[in-house]
Amino acid sequence: MSSQNQAAAKFRSVALTVAAIAIAIVAGGYAFTDIPQRLGLASASQETGSEEPGHEGHDHAAGEHDDHAGHDHEGHDEAESIELSSQARANLKLTTQAVSVGRFDEYIEVPATVVDWPGRTHIAITSPLTGVIKAIEVSRGELISSGRPLFILRLTHQDLVETQEQFLTSLGQLDVEEREINRLTSISNSGAVAGKTRLAREYERDKLLAGLKAAKQSMLLHGLTDEQIQSIQDDRKLIREVTIYAPTLHSDRSLHHDSNLHSRTNIVGDSGVRFASMQPPPLHPEHIEAEFLITELNANRGESVQAGQQLGRLSDYSEILIQGEAYQRDGEALQKAANSEQPLQALIESRSGRPQVIEGLKIVYIGNEVNRESRSLPFYVSLTNQIERSERIDGQQYVSWRYKPGQRLQLRVPVSGFDNAIVVPKEAVAEEGPERYVFVENNNHFDRVAVEVLASDSMNVAIRNDGQLWPGQSIAVSGAHQLQMAMKNQSGGAIDPHAGHNH
């Protein structure tokens, strides 16, 4: 063999050896590495010589269902993904929502308490006269309306009774004097009776009129109204019982004058007589019908009460206040929110874990003194209440208001904000050291995606809109911490019990 042929044979041998080594490397890389998956050349279920996780040792009959068959795993990294069954979703109470870009408002949060509205929530019902409680027409906890009878009071004040008797006596004597004066006037013109006799009768009449005026003033001081005194004068019968009614309010929530004294009056000898002037006053355009809750009853049937003594208390919880306790450093933010009429939020704890949010609250006023003990600045926010439960028993209505004085909550005062942020609930973000993750839904998997957090508060997190998440993607908005723990367990890493917690 010539030297030229020997060289060609040697070259072919080396080339075949190199080609065999290259084929072996490519085959090994395809079979035993994840390079094909990264390049999109094969799915995990098509790996040669290996079975899928969780399928080792299983014999799959022909046509048997494969849980991974038909899934599109393009761009799917098993190390950054977790598969959940429907049972796992239910156990985690997992909820999802679509990603959207919007505005994130930053708040300061301060502790607060629901309180009465001073001078507005409560109305004291007092006895207009001295007497004995004959009947109580309402019960504690009952919801009533304006004009509802509250108490029936039997008058027992001796001075008042004697003044009424004296008043009636003087009225009778005045009638006699008027008739006598009229008779003397007709005959004195003929000269049969001296004129001085008629003048003497007129003097007596004037004395009786003066006495009647004094008696009227005395009865007013004892608590009777002008209408009641006029009824005595018109009907010549003493007032023995007075019915006290729930008051009527003006449109500014102030009490109508003597509204609780417009009472049904029982007259001796005719208990069925009702005087129009004694009825609850007709509603005027500036008057409003109001509903009250009987919160106190301070008198018992048969109890003797004095004029001005409190018999009970009515409460109107339809409009109440939230008293916030801000730090001194937050005073400027409060003033800014009050001046610009920016809406506040209130958070109330609930059994579901995520607090109930009350939107659209307004600051009524800011306190002028800092509490010397807590060093906090009080401010007050109006709160429109709602009836959450109503029950009628024996014709009486009992209610429970949703927001109750003494109830604790958190007030959120807006301070600033920014646009073009992805806002998600704080339960949607898991923490792992300096990293923050959200979980994007991908069929029955959830892919972990690292994100940058711009700001956060007790409810929401603002994520930078940098392309890591896209509007319309579905993400888990609850259970992110549990998903993070499950992924660590899946990868075989030690479980950090504090991973995913927002401290």
Automatic annotation (TrEMBL):
Compositional bias ranges of the Basic and acidic residues kind: 52-79
BP terms from Gene Ontology: copper ion export; plasma membrane copper ion transport
Keyword entries, A-Z: Transport
Annotated coiled-coil segments of the chain: none
The protein's name in its UniProt record: HlyD family secretion protein
GO CC terms in record: cell envelope
Organism: Rubripirellula lacrimiformis
Region feature (Disordered): 43-81
